[in-house]
Design goal:
Layout: H1 20-26
InterPro entries: AB_hydrolase_fold
């Protein structure tokens, strides 16, 4: 995963052609940007019950 105290945004903040995530994607690699629990993208989750089917509906 990415660095300490960082989110996936750290890998794309400078934009195309400058950040490693964009460079690797441009070269044809699959790039996955993961986030650990507790970062800015997980703090306001509206449906914490993972037992409900809607939680797993990623459409």
């Amino acid at each position: 995963m990415h660095g300490l105290l960082c989110s996936s945004a750290c890998w794309v903040v400078a934009g195309p052609g400058k950040d490693l995530a964009f460079i690797l994607a441009d070269e044809g690699y699959d790039v996955w940007l993961g986030n650990a629990r507790g970062n800015m993208y997980s703090r306001k989750h509206y449906l914490p019950d993972i037992k409900k089917e809607l939680y797993w509906d990623f459409r």
